[in-house]
Amino acid sequence: MWNDNSEDQLIKFIQENKEDFYRLAYTYVRNSEDALDIVQESIRKALTAKQSLKKANSVKSWFYKIVVHTALDFLRKQKKVTIVDETNLDYFSKGKNDSYQNIDLKRSLEALPLKYSSVIVLKFFEDLTIDEVAEVLQEKPNTVKTRLYRALELLRIELEQD
Fold it and tell me: By the 8 A CB rule, do 30 and 75 touch?
């Protein structure tokens, strides 16, 4: 259970990981302004619902879940497709080594259905465990493993064709 200074702890956690949250939101919406709006809305939601977090050690997956659901809600509302703006992505991910250097991989990831690309991004680009990915996506770990296997298989087939 969080203690009386839980808001301070949450704010510190968000500040320390803000670039990761931005990258995750950007992965979904492919627009820097929208990604910033999603992160801002996620922070608002987290501060409003901080009492729902029972264990301090699950704050990472709890906040990732908020960001993912906020991004998905945004996409449902907007139903728009935007072109990736590499300049903005590079600007906001400075100091991180997790960038899409391989253009074929990037295109193949974008071509995957959202349920598969989400698993790949959370597992390999955000370094979450299978259990954390399952918690974020509100799926069973075995479902995540199956989707991860299928996503990797689809990527392999797509990349071999190129």
Answer: no
